[in-house]
Design goal:
- By secondary structure, the protein is mainly alpha-helical.
- It has two domains: 33 residues, no CATH class; 53 residues.
- Helices cover 79% and strands 0% of the residues.
- The longest helix is centred in the middle third of the chain and has 27 residues.
- The two termini are 33 Å apart.
- The relative contact order is 0.09.
């Protein structure tokens, strides 16, 4: 354990009003370890980020030229979003 981690543990145990051993036992019993993101989920998140950028561009174009000019672009992005969301739901 690094020095900084030790002092953090010590401070948290003191704040809770228990000794370090009891604090660690309670952490072990009550903590929830979450799985890391899989490479596939990271890829889906990147796709969603790119699509969010596309949606912002479509919104700007819609504000400038009107909705009818960007309607088809919106439909394409919407379909892609639905596919990515389905992939994420299937992975989780």
């Amino acid at each position: 354990m690094a020095t900084e981690e030790y002092y953090s543990l010590k401070a948290k145990a003191n704040f809770a009003g228990i000794n370090r051993s009891e604090f660690i036992r309670q952490c072990i019993c009550t903590c929830e370890v979450r799985q890391r993101l899989t490479p596939e989920l990271v890829g889906y998140i990147r796709q969603l980020s790119g699509m969010a950028n596309n949606i912002n561009q479509i919104a700007r174009a819609a504000n400038a030229a009107g909705y009818s000019g960007v309607h088809m672009q919106y439909l394409v992005v919407n379909e892609r979003l639905d596919k990515v969301i389905t992939l994420i739901e299937d992975d989780c």
